[in-house]
Structure formats: C-alpha cells, structure tokens
Design goal:
The structure holds 2 protein chains of 2 kinds.
Chain A: E1 4-11, H1 22-37, E2 46-50, H2 54-57, H3 63-70, E3 78-81, H4 87-101, E4 106-114, H5 123-131, H6 146-161, H7 165-180, H8 193-198, E5 201-203, E6 206-207, E7 216-224, E8 237-246, H9 261-274, E9 283-285, H10 291-300, H11 309-314, H12 331-335, H13 342-355, E10 368-375, E11 380-388
Parallel strand pairs in A: 2-3, 2-4, 9-10
Antiparallel strand pairs in A: 1-7, 1-8, 4-7, 5-6, 8-11, 10-11
Helix pairs in contact in A: 1-3, 7-10
Chain B: H1 17-25, E1 30-34, E2 40-41, E3 56-60, E4 64-73, E5 84-90, E6 95-100, E7 109-118, E8 121-128
Parallel strand pairs in B: 6-8
Antiparallel strand pairs in B: 1-2, 1-3, 4-5, 4-7, 5-6, 7-8
Classes of the chains: A alpha/beta, B mainly beta.
Chain lengths: ~400, ~130
C-alpha cells in the first residue's frame, strides 16, 4: 500500500534567477507540476511550501499565502516549512501524512530559494546565513561554517577508514558528468580530478569543486492518494516510505559522528515502511552538499559497508551504468542546491527516472529509488522511498 | 572535572548559556554532569540526553584533550577573520568544538586557552599543548 502517489513533477533550471520574485520562481516549478498531472488549481486542496533563508536574506516571510496567490491557490490552507537543507523533504513528509489521514486529497508540495550573489547576498554574507543553521551559541561563535561541518565529518572519516582525497574528487567528477547530461543542472560542464585539486581551498579537505554551488531555483510535486492516482494524465509513482530523524546539536556531541545516526534511523524507518532492504534500492539521490557528504550518505543508506563508500565511488559502482547509480541528476554538486527546493527536486528526479523519462541520464530500468535529504549539521535527515508501479 | 571548583555564580544545577558564557570569559570551561548516569556535556542542556534525568550538576570540564577532527576554514562568514582552524576536541568525558590557534592534526594534544568572540558571543579557544 502506497502512502501517497506523485502524479505531477516540475522544477526550474537551477542557477541564477535574480529578476523574479520568490513567488514567480515557485510558479515556474508549480505550474509544470500541475500541467504534468493535468490538474487545475481548483483541484488542489493545500500547499505545503518550503523556504529556508528568505526571512534573513530577503526580509520576506509568511511565504505560503504569497506563493499560493501567485498560482491561483489563494484560499487553500498553506504553511511554510523550514528545516535547513531538508526543508522540502519535511514538507513532503507532512503532506503524505495529511493525505493518508484524509485531511487533504490533493496537495502541492515544493520549495523555492535564492542563494546566488546575483540575487542578493555576497558570498561572506550568504556563508553567515547558511551558518545560522549551526548552534547559535556553541558553534557560530567558534566560526563553524557548513563546509566546515562536513570537513570535520569527512576528515574523521578519512582518519578512521582511509578515505582519500582522490575518492572525494571522484564524487565531484562523477556528479559533474551526470550533471552534463541534465539540461536543468546549474553546472553542465565536465571536470577532471585536476580541476578539483587545483581549485581554491574552502575548508580542507574541500576545494571549490568539492562543494555544491550557491543556487537559485524551485521544484514542486503534486501528491494524491494511491487510489486517486490513476485518474490523472501522468504515469504515477508511489511514495512507499518516508523516514525522518534528528541528530544532536551541537555536532561535537553526536555520539556516532561519521555514522550520521539520523540518516541511519531515517533510512531504517523508510525501508521498513516500504518493506524493502537497502539491497533493493536501484538508485539514489543523496545530499551531496560536499563530496564527503555523499560518501557518508551512501554508507548511512546501507548501499555500502562503513568505509567502503570511498572505494565504491572510485570503482565506478555509483556512476550511471554502475550497480547503484548515485545522484544521476548531478546531485547538489552539479545540479545545484537552492536550499528549500532541494528535497522536492530529488523527488522530481526519482519520478522522472522511475517513469523512464530521464533521457541521457536514465538509470537502466529502475523500480525503486531512494532520496536522502539532510539539513544542518546532519541534525535533520529525511529518507524517502519511491517506487514504480508493478 | 569536579563540582567544587566552579565559580560561586555557577554552582548547583541548571547551567544556562549566559552563565556558561560568563565563565568562559572568566577563563573557566564549564559543563554539566548528570547526577543519575554521570553523562557529561560540554554545552548546557535541560535534560540529560543519555538517561533523561534532569539533575545536571555544573562542573568544570577538563582543560586538556586530543584533536578528534579538525579543518581550516578559508571561506569565512561576514565579520570573521579570513582563515582559521576549528577542531572537535575530545576531552575524555565529552567532545567540544573549539577554535585552535596552532596548526594541529587529529590526535594532537591541545589545551584550553581562553575564548574567541563573534557577534558578542564567546566560543572556546584551544592551543597545541606545549612540548617539553
Ligand atoms: Zn543521565
């Protein structure tokens, strides 16, 4: 029994969207999602909207009604979610629960975000905004940044398991290759290991190309009950599990550290709901905000044993054509990371892949995909299992 | 790590951030120890994460430890220096994030050495343990 079904999916190209309002940007993803399903705004019962930073970066709050009004949904119940980079995955979780409970029948879920210098803040200002997700009182004063969070996790992983800089670079090279096949990716160019090593340091071991870019963009999905899904124009895919867990703040006190406990708990919960094990996952979109984060994620999802995530990427096991392609969209690394839009953008990719509509980056005949969306210092993680209908 | 060496203004239970920060500015690194299960925290909480106990006694943390992980941050937030190193320091009973003043690596011994400040909030500072 599916918990809910995706009948519409849409997203903007990720990159720079400096000349639109946030609501206009969201419309560029939401209307294609509705059109994909063949649904009009009058059929939508609720909007679950994600945005992380506009309250700080654009002095723009109470975004649910603003986004709803832009797309003909004024009047429906709407709320805005903020869970750092996991924002629109948690919005999806609540939308699925609302459908299951009979609270709403048709829910539009998505997010919009602007982080590029062209659309607002300079790099040091946006670095401060991102760092606001770290502990205000015990981490920000020390100067911890988000590259810093994942650098601490990754250097410990390198120390414990022998993960190498070359393996980290291979994540970037692979995801840029995947992104070169995705017309909506912010970075459509291929890169080499030398490009990674020659880039400026951000927080060692991460150079510029180990890090996802600042991005603007939006994404949206239309959710309905499993039984209602057949009445829409598109090929539906089923959300069969969503797991959600939190990890302790501050990061230093997380007992497991490199294990990212929240991701393991979320994955176990999602797999149990979907009645699958990790071995049945055909491909995954994971939260590769930094190259090391992808390696930690593939281990937390159980795709590889602890310590095997680095060798796996180096051996091509996570590339398109490999045994379990990871981030066929290009991931946050190449596709881009407009924070509050990332969670539902992962589900857009899962939907297109499971429909067989992913073009040059199509995974070979997948039936089960997993999305791993992480927020803050691994302090929120949502894992979603999406499957094609038999 | 004992309860009898904490400043008078911090004695007892119920350590709040304001007191933790005042002590840090005074050169004292405070934490909490659970009366029920002896779990130690470097940053104050209202409830013990290990046993859900609420009797968290204010204690002085150890002032020396070992680098558990570290990174040098080169792209820094608005208002901070251009380049600095941070580390998760393993103090034994708990781990604590700190700024470090010297080039240290995982496993290096470090000692508490005052505080840094950002937007009027203090954070702990450690330095490499002097050799010899
Ligand atoms: Zn306790």
């Amino acid at each position: 029994m599916a918990r809910a079904s995706i009948v519409g999916a849409g997203m903007t190209k990720f990159g720079t969207h400096a000349d639109e309002t946030l609501a206009e940007l969201f419309a560029e993803a939401a209307l294609p999602a509705l059109d994909d399903a063949g649904a009009g705004p009058d059929e939508v019962d609720a909007l679950y909207f994600g945005n992380t930073s506009a309250a700080i970066s654009e002095n723009d709050t109470h975004l649910g009604p603003k986004a709803a009004s832009q797309i003909g949904l004024a009047g429906v119940p709407t709320q805005r979610f903020e869970d750092a980079c996991a924002t629109s995955a948690t919005a999806t979780k609540h939308a699925v629960a609302a459908i299951e409970a009979g609270l709403h029948d048709v829910v539009l879920v998505g997010g919009a975000e602007r982080c590029t210098p062209a659309s607002g803040l300079d790099t040091d200002e946006m670095t401060r905004v991102f760092a606001s997700a770290a502990s205000r009182h015990y981490e920000q004063p020390v100067g911890l940044t988000f590259p810093g969070v994942f650098a601490l996790l990754t250097k410990r992983h390198m120390h414990e398991y022998g993960t190498t800089r070359e393996q980290l670079a291979e994540v970037a090279v692979k995801n840029h290759h995947h992104g070169s096949l995705n017309p909506r990716a912010q970075h459509g160019m291929e890169i080499t290991h030398e490009d990674v090593f020659d880039g400026p340091l951000i927080a060692d071991p991460f150079h510029l190309y180990d890090c996802c870019p600042f991005s603007d963009g939006a994404s949206a999905i239309l959710l309905v009950s499993e039984d209602a899904a057949d009445s829409y124009d598109s090929t539906p895919v089923d959300i069969n599990g969503i797991g959600h867990a939190s990890g302790g703040v501050p990061l230093s006190e997380q007992s497991a550290f490199t294990a990212t406990r929240a991701a393991r708990d979320a994955a176990a919960e999602a797999y149990a709901q979907a009645d699958i094990d990790a071995g049945e996952v055909d491909f995954a979109e994971v939260h590769d905000c930094f190259t090391g984060a992808e390696i930690l994620a593939t281990e937390a999802l159980g795709l590889f044993e602890d310590g095997e995530g680095g060798p796996a990427v180096a051996d091509g096991r996570t590339a398109l054509g490999g045994e379990v392609p990871v981030n066929p969209s290009g991931g946050l690394k190449a596709k881009g990371h407009p924070i509050g839009a990332t969670g539902t953008a992962q589900l857009v990719e899962l939907t297109e892949q499971l429909r067989g509509d992913a073009g040059d980056r199509q995974v070979e005949a997948p039936t089960t995909g997993a999305a791993h969306n992480l927020g803050g210092e691994a302090a929120t993680t949502v894992v979603t299992v999406v499957e094609a209908r038999p | 790590m004992t309860a009898d060496e904490v400043p008078a203004y911090a004695e007892g239970t119920g350590l709040a951030h304001a007191t933790w920060a005042r002590a840090l500015r005074d050169g004292v690194l405070l934490g909490q120890e659970c009366s029920d299960c002896e779990h130690v925290l470097g940053t104050p909480k209202s409830v013990c994460p290990a046993c859900s106990g609420r009797s968290l006694v204010t204690v002085r943390l150890p002032t020396s430890g070992e680098v558990f992980s570290e990174t040098t941050i080169e792209v820094t937030p608005e208002g901070l220096d251009d380049r600095y190193q941070v580390a998760v320091v393993d103090l034994g009973p708990t781990r604590l994030l700190a700024r470090v003043a010297d080039e240290v690596e995982i496993g290096d011994p470090v000692v508490f050495d005052g505080f840094v400040q950002y937007e009027d909030l203090p954070g702990p500072r450690f330095v490499a343990e002097p050799t010899g």
